[in-house]
Design goal:
With 390 residues, the protein is α/β, with parallel strands linked by helices. Helices cover 28% and strands 21% of the residues. It binds NADP nicotinamide-adenine-dinucleotide phosphate.
């Protein structure tokens, strides 16, 4: 909830209400949202936000400055855009995908920087749930004489910061569950190792989704059965591989497995009970694996997921892509911890002996809101919103 419904009467311009949207606002905001996607999954606990500075000297609008939240989360997008625009910022419009910040940290607030640079109008999209901002950024701008138009493509912009919103509102990272289903609705074969279900186009798409999350999580069953790499293998994007988390309460992961052998190049965490084998822990730690202690759910004896997610949020993880397997997927769904569900239906048939997932496309359709459906080669990609945050 924003608190800026009743803006303060303000300074230089004397404006006292939000300025109306103009026809070109959606073009530039759409461009800013696309630009913000560039650093999604790479800005730590800060959201990836973009700013475009646009001026019109009578020959049509042109972008004179652009910025996106820097890797790690600072500096903010506004700083980069203002630096690029320089004096051209004076009298220009700034498009920001999230309300500009209003609090003093190591740097002055972005709202203040926009006022100082002489920006005439700010068009913002998503509201910031951080209580230090939440409406105060807009108020600071208006008090400085800047016209403010808000909520332009708010929903679209909020989609780019879902993990950040979930962390603020629910105290845990945003969770996407992704499963590949065969044409006959199976996700693998017990004892059959990794089964190829999807084609190259959706595989590339999966790697893009990986790059946009802070961490990928799988259960011990998948780690042992598939010995997966769980990295981003798009050309030129190896550096965008998220951290890996293996949910392995009884520490069945061995140092010879791929995730352990490559733990020095891709951060790898194992969530395990404190009672798990200390010698194996030492051997895995030697390989570069780190550990998150987890507790058992008193009813099921399995890892208590809400507590684990809280602990992971405390380490700075804002978004998690859960990539299986069946038991892990079932637990996340049963606990209501899935915000987005991606199901990819391939053309392959696995047969009766295959592993049945906790839900199929028909069940997902009946329970959740379908955001997108795409055809990638022979596969169909379904993207559902489960726990609505936007
Ligand atoms: N098609 C796909 O998208 C896809 C994706 C991934 C995997 N798979 C397939 O799925 C199969 C593996 O699935 P799986 O069900 O055997 O293994 P899993 O779900 O990957 O792992 C299950 C294990 O995770 C541990 N665990 C910890 N906390 C848990 C919790 N809260 N709830 C449930 N489990 C918890 C348990 O280990 P302990 O038993 O030690 O307690 C449990 O046995 C493989 O065949 C793999 O190829 C398919």
């Amino acid at each position: 909830m924003t608190t800026d419904a009743a803006p303060v009467a303000n300074g230089a311009s004397g404006a006292s209400a939000f300025a109306p949207e103009r026809p070109e606002d959606r073009w530039f905001m759409a461009a800013a949202i696309r630009y913000a996607m560039r650093h999604v999954g790479r800005t730590g606990t800060n959201p990836s936000v973009a700013t475009l500075i646009v001026r019109n000297d009578g020959e049509g609008p042109r972008i004179v400055g652009r910025g996106v939240t820097a890797l790690g989360g600072r500096p903010h997008a506004e700083a980069g855009a203002l630096a690029e625009a320089g004096e051209l910022a004076r009298g220009a419009t700034a498009y920001v995908t999230l309300e500009p910040c209003a609090h003093h940290g190591r740097t002055p607030p972005c709202a203040e920087a926009l006022v100082r640079a002489g920006i005439a109008r700010v068009v913002s999209a998503a509201a910031d749930p951080d209580p230090r901002v939440d409406g105060k950024g807009h108020q600071m701008l208006m008090a400085g004489g800047v016209a403010v138009t808000r909520r332009v493509m708010e929903r679209e912009a909020a989609r780019t910061i879902e993990g950040y919103l979930t962390r603020h509102r629910r105290g845990r990272p945003g969770v996407t569950l992704k499963m590949a289903l065969s044409r006959d609705g199976r996700i693998g074969i017990r004892g059959g190792g990794q089964v190829k279900i999807t084609g190259p186009v959706s595989d590339a798409q999966t790697h893009l989704v990986r790059a946009r999350h802070d961490a990928i999580l799988v259960g011990a069953g998948t780690a042992l059965e598939d010995d997966p790499r769980l990295d981003c293998r798009l050309p030129g994007m190896a550096g965008r591989s998220p951290a890996r988390i293996i949910l392995d309460p009884n520490l069945r992961t061995s140092p010879e497995m791929t995730v352990a052998r490559t733990a020095r190049s891709v951060p790898t965490m194992i969530a395990t009970f404190e009672t798990s084998d200390p010698q194996r822990q030492a051997a895995l730690a030697e390989a570069g694996v780190t550990f998150v202690a987890c507790v058992a759910d008193p009813a099921s004896g399995r890892v208590a997921l809400p507590e684990l997610l809280e602990d992971l949020a405390a380490t700075g993880i804002t978004s998690i892509l859960v990539e299986g397997g069946a038991n892990i997927a079932a637990s996340f769904l049963a606990d209501g911890l899935v915000d987005r569900l991606i199901l990819v239906e391939g053309a392959v048939e696995i047969g009766e002996a295959g592993i049945v997932p906790p839900l199929d496309v028909a069940a997902a359709r009946s329970r959740y809101r379908l955001l997108r459906q795409d055809v990638f080669g022979a596969d169909t990609w379904f993207d559902f919103a489960c726990e609505e945050i936007v």
